[in-house]
UniProtKB/TrEMBL annotation:
Pfam families: PQ-loop (PF04193). InterPro entries: LAAT-1 (IPR051415), PQ-loop_rpt (IPR006603). Keywords: Membrane, Transmembrane, Transmembrane helix. The keyword Transmembrane helix applies. This is PQ-loop-domain-containing protein. GO terms for cellular component: lytic vacuole membrane. GO terms for biological process: vacuolar transmembrane transport. Gene3D superfamilies: 1.20.1280.290. It catalyses: L-histidine(out) + L-arginine(in) = L-histidine(in) + L-arginine(out). It comes from Serendipita vermifera MAFF 305830. Its main location: membrane. GO terms for molecular function: basic amino acid transmembrane transporter activity. The keyword Membrane applies.
Amino acid sequence: MNPRAQASSALGWVSIACWILVYTPQILENYQLKSGEGLSVLFVLIWLAGDICNLVGAGLAGLIPTVIILAIYYTICDLILLFQIYYYRLYDEPPSPTATYVETTTTSPDTLVPSTPLIASEQTPLLPQSQAQALKVTLSTPNPTNPPVAIPTWLSRGAQYVGGLAFVTLAGLAAWWIAGHKEAGDDGSVEVFNWTSQALGWASAAMYIGSRIPQIAKNRETKCAGLSLALFLFAILGNVTYVLSICVISMDKDHLILSAPWLAGSIVTVFLDFFVLGQFFYYRREEGNLKHPEVHHSIDNRDEVA
């Protein structure tokens, strides 16, 4: 029993588990919003082209089964995301953000306020003047007996994401165990250097890296709205375990050269995905400051006094 092959196989199963679930949060996000506009179409198209090149190149090179299985699954999920984007554009057009209908608690004409429009514009206050003023005073006035406390939303969400990543890791290891601890390379496949597969592999790597650029640009416009954070978290874990599954089995020069396109594509993509995570945290923090400026101001004043 080869320990390195065992470890490579286990890491490969964890990577497969990550990539099986990586698209699920985004697909659900699109379904709930009835929109796929959080994704850049160019991002998905380039990703799809890279997955096709990856699949063909991995098959020609006779790479380990992990690579080929993932390439097939990537392609199917890319097509699902594209279908969602264009389906919701055609059949589920979202309401215009410039006109929001104000709901009332009663249908009686006597209870309607004449000065309150039924259609709110950007200049229409969300609350009557008296309520808005009272809310402002409540938020901005520090209370010594009950000081304002910032709710650690990201802390609770972070715990959920960590739990999800831990669950996927354990699921991958369980699948490897159930499969009988099969070692990488047990299927009799032989790695063969092939110029065609190498060209396709490098093409797929370039596409994987390039696909992140339009999504990063898209995030600047949408502030990451409609984009699933879990997609990129699972992608990072999936790529890291994917790279390790290739390197752990052998650090032989010929093996690394043969796998170089797939290693390069995954490693650089991980760094770009971390950049996307940075966008998520930046825009969410900016959004929180805009929503509750008085709360943040009062907390800052309390810290200065302390």
